[in-house]
Amino acid sequence: MKYIDVFRTSDRNEHSIIKNLFDDEKLDYRSYGEATDNATNIGALGNDGLRIEVAESDREKATEIIRRSGFLGQSHNISNPKRTKPQVGKWVFVLLAALVVLIAIIFFVWFMSGN
């Protein structure tokens, strides 16, 4: 029997949801990447990610299940994950500027005191 790759992700929660949906519908599927994901505990980095293959005869049904679950149509780019930029950048700048001003005031008071 030939199997076709229908779902690929680096998120083990998505993977588990799809597996449970396929179990409920009694689809013939294979799951890959779980052992490596659990062993490394870093979201399947360094391998192919988590993927699910279904029997060729169940392809349309599997695609419909994934579409209904809301995961189909979303980008699952494992090789180039999108990283969010931290939002603390401007606050660090403000804090450092305040620290510089405070140090300048301390030096000014110290030198002007005449001691």
TrEMBL record:
Q: Which InterPro entries did the record assign?
A: DUF2007 (IPR018551), N-reg_PII-like_a/b (IPR011322)
DUF2007 domain mapped to chain residues: 4-68
**Residues annotated as transmembrane:** 91-112
What keywords is this UniProt entry annotated with? Membrane, Transmembrane, Transmembrane helix
Please give the superkingdom of this protein's source: Bacteria
Q: What is this protein called?
A: DUF2007 domain-containing protein
